[in-house]
Model the fold of this input.
Amino acid sequence: MHENWTDFFEAVEEFPFNRRLKFKKLCIVGNEPLLFPKLQETIALAVKNGFREIEVLTSGGPLSDIFFLRELVQAGVTSFSLPLFGSTAETHDRIVQKKGSFRELMTALGSLKQVRGIRVFIHTNLLKQNLNELPALERLVTREFGFPFAILPTRTKFTNLPFREYTPSYREVISTLKGKVRSLLGFPYCIQRTVQKTDTAVVSDSMKLYFIHQRFIKPAPCRTCLYFNRCPGVFRDYLKVYS
Done:
């Protein structure tokens, strides 16, 4: 579900067909699903029509209301996927361009820890604006909150800025992060292996959709790489800027 409420309503109308299709997992993504006025009823309808795992991709702010959170879980939500862009309010709020967002999200993560029976996935995008904070961010998520974490490459149009202004080169990534993080995912495998010998990244099903829509390619020099068959490749837009 994505783009606008029209798409949302159209998707909901398809729920009864799942009694025949028998899909078990439903991901609700796009814009901010938690603002949908009939979300609890929609989730309950999904459960009624056979969905057993329901994941919501959200900015996380509304989950700071633990009563609302518990209503969603009672309706049938089994997991949440949230973005966190910095280990400090200054960095996170600057990137999302919303003052107070970090504080609200910290409250939401605290609430999520109190609710049993749900899974929580946290992800971030690797940006020039948060590159130096990623080790601290990884510790915050995995140690203080105990949630799985993934550091993902940045797609184009992340902001209105040119791609080069928010995406660091692989050389910068290696020099800044080598030996300091373990949660890179979706980067060329040779880069990941250089930065981290152990890979602990865990990503939600919602964010797997993120990768499906990216244009990965493997340029000619990659053909002789030992990791060729297990590597996702490079974002095409990265090569346009840094080749």
Summary: Strands lie at 25-28, 53-57, 79-83, 119-125, 149-152, 216-217, 234-235. The chain has a mean pLDDT of 90. The chain has twelve helices and seven strands.
